[in-house]
Amino acid sequence: MRLVPTLVLVLLSAALLPATVQAHEFFVVPRGDAGKAAPVIVEAQAAHVFLRSAEVEKADNVRVELLAADGKRQPLTLSPGTASKALEGTITGPVSGPAWLVGHRLPEVWSATTEGVLPGDRAALEAQGKTVRSVGRYEKFAKTALVPGGDAAFWSRPLGQTLEIVPLAPLDALKAGDVLPLQVLLDGKPVPQAEVGVSHEGYSEEEDAYKQILRTDAEGRVSLRPDAPALWLARVAVTRPAKDATGADEENLRATLLFPVK
User: What's the predicted TM-score (pTM) here?
Assistant: First the structure.
């Protein structure tokens, strides 16, 4: 399998991103067991503290869908939550088999200027008299294992997200102490030397607190060993030169994976 050239990619940690842009990670979080009862609220989170949303994304910029093992897709209608700082959707009926919740925070363009980080591209901001230093295009992807079960092939099949974290083992009986291999893909190709942050819900009240930072091997693979029953997360970020048509200098991509551990 062809690898992503490491000289083309710059792997980002949160500290290297402009403050206004780097603040939040994107997660899709079910608040209930969709295999046992319905309805279940699903939060599209913009979070500092994992997994607690700190900001409501624009509903027009976020897509969340339920992807079943038979390939059926059910888009969720999102709106600002009444009790959470998140967009919320609803799974209306019990989910009878393994499924993914799949999230996409559509691209947004932000520019570093002499007046701070502002939304908009170079042309738009320079037309307002701003001095633009650099322009970034920010896009985020999320996937969450829902009602674990089924065989390994379902969970290890890439969904085709531009940046994606793929579990390479079944998620139906994952327990604390088990080893879970993952693979990071960019445009379907392995990403070597990618930093993967690992944490779980309830681990810390600090912002962006990872329990472990792991690095992928030459095939884009990494193995983690969850050590507590919880909803666990893995997160990766990359940046690469943007295509001319985007109006940005760099394209910044992020992906998260959520999975339960018994």
Answer: 0.89
